[in-house]
Design brief:
UDP-galactose 4-epimerase, domain 1, 2 domains, Rossmann fold, alpha/beta, binds uridine-5'-diphosphate, 7-stranded parallel sheet, two-stranded parallel ribbon, globular, 38% helix
Length: 314
């Protein structure tokens, strides 16, 4: 049986990846320190003999007995509020954690895929963002702890590839959404859904003219799965190019939830908030024969079903 280690397995994306690899017939070893992850996301896996779990912080030395075929490094705080509250942990898991896992991959002769991010492009001056764009990042701003850790992560991963011949894969993940997102993680979709369901104000930051491009989690997981099994070792953008302003996104959620008490509540724009973001997925289309299949209408409907189960209506 092929064995895969997934760090951040109790998180939003990590738990969906764990499901997928179990469905594909792998033995999944999940690892998480539960700083932002939740056992609720993987509760259903504990009864399976194909799933094992280590409660561990990958910023410290990582030991896993037995062989490993693949490692997927998805452990990290991942929302702007998390970076503000946990800046040091964010830096450590992207840097020291990645170093530990690269060492483990080398020891086990395993292929490693690391979760990078559209944040490596910062507040981008090129639009849409291609993998060749080097980015516009403020290293000492509030998002710098995440952005720079992820940029270091890419650098050390390429160094292990070049100098040790390690098999590496780098996915640059754009805004992703779906069931199991943390209700209070501060990101725009959980915020808007929970506010709309509770009949509160939807907190639109700034004038709401900034854009994002949202990818449904199943599409992302498919892209990651294909990238892992491909022979492509350069970074690949995975995201949905359908771009929308945050204001229009708020209106879509208001229409879907249809709670007459909900309204738009303008708040100040956070420091260094990127003005626009849209993936160029030419590489993913060509190398992985991948593109997103689930549009926002379908994806938001599925996600709403989830938020109805975790948010009390008001
Ligand atoms: N945003 C917002 N209201 C919120 C949370 C976020 O208007 O309650 C905006 C935020 O300013 C940004 C966009 O939505 O422009 C996406 O923010 P998120 O925190 O989801 O992730 P980011 O893409 O910035 O990493």
């Amino acid at each position: 049986m092929k064995r895969v280690l997934i760090t951040g397995a109790a998180g939003f994306i990590g738990s969906h990846l764990s499901d997928r690899f179990i469905r594909e017939g792998y033995l999944v070893i999940g690892m998480d320190n539960l700083l932002t992850g939740s056992l609720d996301n993987i509760e259903h896996l504990f009864k399976l003999k194909e799933f094992d779990f280590y409660h561990h912080d990958v910023s410290k030395f990582v030991h896993v007995p037995g062989h490993l075929d693949y490692i997927l490094h998805f452990a990290s705080p991942a929302s702007p509020i998390d970076y503000l509250q946990m800046p040091i942990q964010t830096l450590k898991v992207g840097s020291l954690g990645t170093h530990n896992l690269l060492g483990l991959a080398k020891e086990k002769k395993a292929r490693i895929l690391i979760a990078s991010t559209s944040e490596v492009y910062g507040d981008p001056l090129e639009h849409p963002q291609k993998e060749t764009y080097w980015g516009n990042v403020n290293p000492i701003g509030p998002r710098g702890v995440y952005d720079e850790a992820k940029r270091f992560q890419e650098a050390i991963t390429m160094a292990y590839h070049t100098y040790h011949g390690l098999e590496t894969r780098i996915v640059r993940i754009f805004n992703t959404y779906g069931p199991r997102m943390r209700v209070n993680d501060g990101r725009v979709l959980p915020a808007f859904f929970s506010q709309a369901i509770r009949g509160e104000g939807l907190t639109v930051f700034g004038d709401g003219e900034q854009t994002r491009s949202f990818c449904y989690v199943d599409d992302l997981v498919e892209g990651i799965y294909r990238l892992l099994l491909s022979d492509y070792n350069q970074p690949v953008n995975i995201g949905n190019p359908a771009e929308i302003t945050i204001m229009d996104f708020a209106r879509e959620i208001l229409r879907l939830v249809d709670n007459p008490k909900a309204f738009i509540d303008y708040r100040p724009l956070p420091v260094d908030d990127p003005k626009q973001r849209q993936p160029d997925i030419t590489v993913a289309r060509k190398v992985l024969d991948w593109e997103p299949r689930i549009d926002r209408v379908e994806g938001l409907a599925r996600t709403y079903e989830y938020f109805k189960t975790v948010v009390t209506p008001g």
